[in-house]
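Q: Sequence in, structure out?
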Amino acid sequence: MSQRRVSPAFALLLLLPAASLAEEAAPYDLNAVVRTALANHPSLRGAAAQLNAFAAQAQQAKSGYSLKVEATLGLTRLQNDPSFSVPPLGTLVFGKADNKQASVTAQYPLTTGGKLEGLNRQAQAGIAASQEALARQRQQVALDVTTAYFSVLKASQMVEVARDQLKALQAQRDAIAKMLEQGVVTRIDLLRAETGVSGAQEFETKARNGEAVATAALANAMGSAADSALNVAAGDAQASPAADLPGETAAAIEEALRQRPELRQVEAQHSAAAAGVDVARSGKRPTAGLFAQYDAERPTFMPETGNWSAGVMLKLNVFDGGATSADVTRAEAQAAQVQAGLDELRNGIRLQVTQAFLNVSSAKERVKTTEQAVATAEEGVRLVRVGYENGVTTITDFLAAQAELTKARTDHVTALFDVQIAQSELRFALGRQPDQG
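A: Exactly. Output:
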C-alpha cells in the first residue's frame, strides 16, 4: 500500500481547525470574560460611535475659521429679449433672452463676535464628555460581566450543594431500607426518606437550571448571544483579599471624587454650556468678514461693472425683538442646571461609595457567621444520624437537620460570592478602569 507524503505547510493547515476548536473550547476565567466583553459588547460600539460623531462635529466647528469658496453656474431664459420703449426712439433692447451666469465667490471671517470660538469650545467639550462616557461604559460592562461570572460560579457551587444533599439523603434512604428488612424501623420512615430524596432531586434540577440561566446571562454580558455555548473555568468559592481597596470610607470617597468619569463628563458638559452662553451673546456683537467674487459670465441685461468685486462686510444686530437676550438667558439657565447636576452627582457618588463600602464589610461578616452555621449544622446532622440509629431521634428530625445543613451551605456559598461581587461594585463605585483590578 502506497503512502502519500504531506507537505509541512499542508499539514499545518490541517492542524489549524483543531487548534481553533481547542482555543474556542478553552474555559473562560474572569480575565478572559472581561476582555471578551470589552472587545465585543454592543454598548461600547455605540459609545464609540457617539465619540466619533462629536469628533466630526468638532471638525465641522473648526471649519468655520477657514476660507469658504463657492462656484455658481446658471442659465436664465427670458420670454423676450429685455427691452423698453421710448416714444421718440422706439423700442430699445438691452439684453438677450438667454443669459448664462458663472461666478466664483470667496469669503473669510474676520470676527464673529465670539460665536466661532464658542462653537469650537462646545465641540471640544463634547469630545471630552464622550470620552468620559465611553470610559464609564467600559467600567459598567466590566462590572456586569464580572457579576455574571461570579453568578455562574455561585450557581455551580449551588449544584454541588444540591448534589451533596441528594447523596446524603439517598445514603440515608438505603440505610433505612436495610434497617426495614431487619425490622428495626417502620415503613413510614422509608416513605419519608423517599419523599426527602424526591425533594432533593427537585432541588438539584432547579440548581442545574439556575446554572444554565446564569451561563446564558454571562454570554449576554460578554456581548454574545444568550444561547452561545460557553465553557466557564471552575472558580474557588473563597473570596479574594482585595488588598488594593481602600480601608476607610473617607479614603474611598476621596478616590471616587478624584477619578469617577461621570464627574469629568458633567464638568465637560458644564464647559460646553458656558461656551453656549458666549455663542448666545455673540448675537449682540458685530461681525465682520472679507469677500471677493469673480464673474466669468454675467446676464446680458445687467450693467457692465467689471468681472470682479471685493470688499469688507460689517454686520450688527440692532434690534431683534429681544430674541438674542432670551437666547442668552436660556443658555445661562442651562449652565446653571448643569452645575446643579454636578453638585447632585457628587452627593450621589458619596452615597454610592458609602453603600458599596458597607456592603463589602457586611458580606465579609456574613462569611464568618455562615461558616459557623455550616459547622453547627454538620454537627447537628451527625448527632441526629447517631440518635436515629439508636432510636433516640426520628426520621423527621434527620430530614429537618439535613435541610438546615443545606440552607447553611447555600447561605455560605452566597456570602462568599457576595463578597467578590461587593468588591467589584466597590471598584466600580471608585471609578477604576477594568485593568486597574
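The longest helix spans residues 115-181.
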